Amino acid sequence: MVEPDRISVVIDQDLESILPGYLANRQKDLLQITKDLQTGDFVSLQTMGHRMKGSGTGYGLNEVSKIGQEMEEAAKAHDGEQISKLAAELTTYLQCIDIVYKEL
């Protein structure tokens, strides 16, 4: 199995104390995405996508925002297959990021 490339993300050091909690919540979101897909709860998936779209950029994680936006759109269309792909993309991203804290 080929290991995915590491992704370095430069984050404002002011976020150092809260970013681990944010990332842990995205891991929890992945569990909820699976549950919501199983039950067909596209309203919850749309809300989760909307939240990620809004919060990712604030934490310097533009990829989370992009995935959130796409998830919100896929949930509106009830496209479970696309949401599954986006969940896999988010999983890979979270596993591959290396956070570099700097004063911005």
Describe, in plain words, how this protein is organized in 3D.
This protein has 104 residues and is mainly alpha-helical. It has one domain: HPT domain (Four Helix Bundle (Hemerythrin (Met), subunit A)). Helix content is 67%, strand content 12%. It is built from 4 helices and 2 strands; from the N terminus they run βααααβ. Strands 1-2 form a two-stranded parallel sheet. α2 packs antiparallel against α3 (62-76). The chain is elongated. It starts with 6 loop residues before the first strand and ends with a strand. The mean pLDDT is 94.
Which properties best describe this structure?
two-stranded parallel sheet, Four Helix Bundle (Hemerythrin (Met), subunit A), mainly alpha, 12% strand, elongated, 104 residues, 67% helix
Secondary-structure map with pairings?
Elements: E1 7-12, H1 19-39, H2 42-58, H3 62-76, H4 80-96, E2 97-102
Parallel strand pairs: 1-2
Question: What's the gist of this structure?
Answer:
The protein is mostly helical. The chain contains four helices and two strands; from the N terminus they run E-H-H-H-H-E.
CATH superfamily: HPT domain
> Over all CA atoms, what is the radius of gyration?
14 Å
Structural class comes to mainly alpha
Total domains: 1
Tell me, what is the CATH class? Mainly Alpha
User: Uncertain runs with pLDDT below 50, 5 residues or more?
Assistant: none
- One letter per element, helices H and strands E, the order comes to EHHHHE
Silhouette:
elongated
Order of strands across the main sheet: 1-2
| Strand residues, percent | 5-15%
> Could you please say which CATH topology applies here?
Four Helix Bundle (Hemerythrin (Met), subunit A)
What's the architecture in CATH terms? Up-down Bundle
What's the main sheet like? 2 strands, parallel
Number of strands: 2
